[in-house]
Design goal:
The complex is a heterodimer of chains A (about 290) and B (about 280).
Chain A lengths: L4 E10 L7 E11 L4 E5 L6 H8 L7 E6 L2 E2 L4 H10 E4 L12 H11 L4 H15 L15 H13 L5 E5 L7 H18 L2 E5 L3 H7 L2 E6 L2 E6 L1 H5 L2 H6 L6 H11 L11 H17 L1
Parallel strand pairs in A: 3-8, 3-9, 6-7, 7-8
Antiparallel strand pairs in A: 1-2, 1-4, 4-5, 9-10
Helix pairs in contact in A: 3-4, 3-5, 4-5
Chain B lengths: L3 E15 L5 E15 L3 E6 L5 H8 L7 E6 L2 E2 L6 H7 E4 L12 H11 L4 H14 L15 H13 L5 E5 L7 H18 L2 E5 L3 H4 L4 E6 L2 E6 L1 H5 L2 H6 L6 H8 L9 H11 L5
Parallel strand pairs in B: 3-8, 3-9, 6-7, 7-8
Antiparallel strand pairs in B: 1-2, 1-4, 4-5, 9-10
The chains are: A alpha/beta (about 290), B alpha/beta (about 280).
Chain lengths: ~290, ~280
């Protein structure tokens, strides 16, 4: 089976050929499987954004290869163009990139570029708007009349309207309030459940990644420092901290309890799991 | 009675926006805000997106003028155009995006920008810049180019730029929203140290509950009004009310609450103590 994305020995330099040349991505190889939800974490400047900009060909590797569905995306112009539709990239603060007169037109921009018929475009817009939670009455408004959270949803709808097989979200919840953050995490989980798309999320929120990801990739100094399930990665708290990251507060609580010699599970990454673990311990005792 | 540094007296604020047909539209953002910030206090302001937090922050140092009511900074009325500079010398602002507030190509030049504009003597500027960079733990990196710094380091340079103007109060509008976990921790440590050691008044607008826990007082905004106010312990014991405003409680608080622990818990340490006690019998 082919991988959704395969990165082979990818290297990318900034300021190439000058004395300031620095590798932003240094000989990275990795695969993303079809239908997977992968979280990418790493401190600022670790290479996350440079890496994902290669996934849909926005950046070209200085050496190495990017394969989508088994095909080198830089094979020819046509392949590269198709990759942009196949792999949707939702940037950080996407609401700053809204530009059309109406929300409808903004969401329709991608599908129109795909040369779909007017009817198909309309269908896609309505579907994407529903997915992203853009209210019907907002479609004919100027995007600039919406609130920050509503603008973010409109921008996300614009990416989803292209119905990409792979969607990449760069810090989708940055700057949102707790409810907005929770809603967005749910939106992404729903989208993936219903469409079976491959989803890649770049985030600084260890909590969000813990609650969603099948697999976690940790970037550090332009390389992949760790990868594995949430369990495999989050159990290495000291290493994560040494890379400028941390573990969720709930995980910290359980590791401190263990440090006191209390026999609680170590692999707790969400509050719900934590409640269950403690309840199991207390109810077990009652029945003794 | 403690000395007040900022006073909001029945402040309302309306944004005037021109729509497509150039029709003036009025969008009210704040309604009858009464708020006092005491000298030396650390106040966190919470509220969902669009609740009016940032508008409130921008009224603190005369970026905006109130539509009605009054904002007074150390007795100076913010409505007086001529007084804006004076107010900004007392209250400094730090914004969300670290890349939008750095102007110079060398860290120490950036910090010197504020005092230079105030016409401070070069010798005094040198002293203030060094002191400010030491206060935010960036002195060793003073000759660096800002673009090579991490997000947390850039935000600390921005904070140094504010304290080099010898402001008595810093207003930070979601300063950690774009930072990685370590950057967030660095900025919070810096803010707390400036507050505790230098006595600088801090107003912190944030979406992170674990940051608000560290304040002396928490102000919760909703639909342009102040809806809750109190110590972090008072505020975070009301999980349902906070959630109804689109907010949340720290994970430590949430866990203990869901386990039926009655005592109010705010921090990891407190949470670990309570759960150890709950499981205590067997240990």
């Amino acid at each position: 089976m082919t991988h959704a994305i395969e990165i082979k020995n990818l290297t990318h330099y900034y300021s190439k050929g000058t004395v300031q040349q620095v590798a932003a991505i240094d000989n990275v190889s990795l695969t993303i499987e079809k239908g997977e939800l992968v979280g990418i974490i790493g401190h600022t400047g670790s290479g996350k954004s440079t890496l994902i900009s290669h996934f849909n060909g926005l950046l070209k590797p200085d050496s190495g290869q990017v394969l989508v569905d088994g095909v080198d995306i830089h094979k020819d112009k046509e392949t590269l163009r198709n990759t942009r539709f196949k792999v949707g990239l939702c940037f950080q603060y996407p609401e700053y990139q809204l530009f059309e007169e109406t929300v409808f037109k903004d969401i329709a921009f991608g599908p129109k570029n795909m040369k779909l018929s007017d009817n198909e475009v309309k269908e896609r817009v309505m579907k994407a708007a529903a997915f992203a939670g853009v209210k019907g009455e907002h479609l004919n408004k100027s995007p600039f009349d919406l609130s920050g959270g509503e603008k973010r949803r409109a921008a996300i709808a614009g990416v989803l309207a292209m119905e990409p097989q792979i969607v990449i979200f760069d810090e989708p919840a940055a700057g949102l309030d707790p409810k907005g953050r929770k809603d967005l995490v749910e939106l992404i989980a729903n989208y993936r459940r219903q469409t079976g798309s491959t989803v890649i999320i770049v985030s600084h929120s260890m909590e969000d990644i813990a609650s969603m990801a099948d697999r976690v990739i940790v970037m550090n100094n332009a390389s992949v420092a760790m990868q594995g399930t949430v369990d495999e990665v989050y159990s290495r708290g000291d290493e994560l901290r040494s890379m400028g990251l941390n573990v969720p507060e709930i995980t910290e609580i359980f590791s401190r309890l263990r440090a006191r010699g209390i026999d609680v599970p170590a692999n707790i990454y969400t509050v719900a799991d934590g409640v269950e673990a403690i309840k199991n311990l207390t109810s077990g005792r009652c029945s003794e | 009675m403690s000395e007040k540094i900022i006073e909001f007296n029945n402040v309302s604020f309306v944004y005037d926006i021109d729509d497509e047909e150039d029709q003036a539209q009025s969008v009210p953002a704040l309604f009858g805000i009464d708020l006092e910030i005491n000298k030396g206090e650390f106040v966190a302001v919470l509220g969902h997106n669009g609740s009016g937090k940032s508008t409130l922050a921008k009224l603190c140092n005369a970026i905006y003028e109130p539509t009605s009511g009054s904002v007074t900074v150390k007795g100076i009325q913010a409505t007086d155009e001529d007084k804006a500079d004076e107010i900004r010398r007392i209250v400094g602002m730090v914004f969300q995006n670290p890349d939008n507030q750095i102007v110079a190509t060398i860290v120490e030049d950036d910090v010197a920008f504020g005092p230079e504009n105030l016409g401070v003597e070069p010798k005094e500027i040198r002293r203030r810049v060094d002191e400010a960079l030491k206060a935010v733990n960036m002195y060793d990196l003073r000759h660096r180019e800002p673009y090579k710094l991490s997000g947390g380091q850039k935000q600390r340079v921005a904070i140094a730029g504010v304290i080099a103007m010898q402001t008595e109060c810093i207003v930070l509008d979601e300063p950690t929203a774009m930072l990685d976990p370590m950057g967030r921790a660095e900025v919070m440590q810096t803010v707390k140290r400036l507050n505790k050691e230098l006595g600088i008044t801090v107003v912190l607008v944030t979406h992170f509950m674990d940051e608000a826990v560290q304040a002396d007082r928490v102000v919760v905004m909703d639909s342009g009004k102040i809806v809750m106010q109190g110590t972090p312990r008072e505020i975070f014991s009301q999980a349902e009310a906070l959630r109804s405003y689109g907010l949340d409680v720290p994970q430590s608080t949430d866990l203990c609450h869901l386990l039926g622990i009655q005592k109010s818990v705010l921090t990891v340490d407190e949470c670990v103590d309570e759960i150890a006690a709950l499981l205590g019998g067997a240990q």
